[in-house]
Protein: Diguanylate phosphodiesterase
Amino acid sequence: MAFQPIVDARDRSIFGYEALVRGVDGGSAGEVIARVSPAQLYRFDQTCRVKAIETAARLGLRQRLSINFLPNAVYEAATCIRLTLVAAQTFGFPTDRLIFETAESEQVRDHRHLTGIFRDYRSRGFMTAIDDFGAGYAGLTLLANFQPDMLKLDIALVRGIDADPVRIAITRGIMQIATSIGSTVLAEGVETEAEYRQLRALGVPLFQGYLFGRPSLEALEDVPDALWQRLAGAPET
Structure:
């Protein structure tokens, strides 16, 4: 497992870390998942959850842990979550620090099933997040059925936003929607200070991307103070 920091620009703290699977040969999450057959999805999903919790606990993670889940692999939310709860208890990781996120870009077979999963997870005290928001198959329909704790802006909206009035307008609209439904926006894939400053000016509070830290294998990297000092001139809202 590799861990990438999620930062809160409001107080310049580490909000949490996203756990990202890596291949033994160094392959990315996408490369690993591409080698998983449909029949193996459920076991793969479960194994990754346990490994993420086990590793985070061993590394002494005190912030939130964001874990991706594959909705097409979750047969029954209540049954599926049992192994996660056992892992959290076994390794001493508080369940109220867990965030479960799924990508809007994944073509979900049954949106009612996904909504049921989200609602079950929320009832257990977990935070929920929709990843790649703005680039997927579900769009606003998914959001109308379930309002997650976090909306993670798709990297396509983030890239070059500082010089693109259309991306700025779209992101401003998403911010307004998020505020209305009680969701917090996270911008992922942030690579430049200019992107950060524009997104911060739009009111985005949470950030993830190479600007703040790359995924680190079996490690929890902090954000250098020098970076925050460089960003000190960014608008605070």
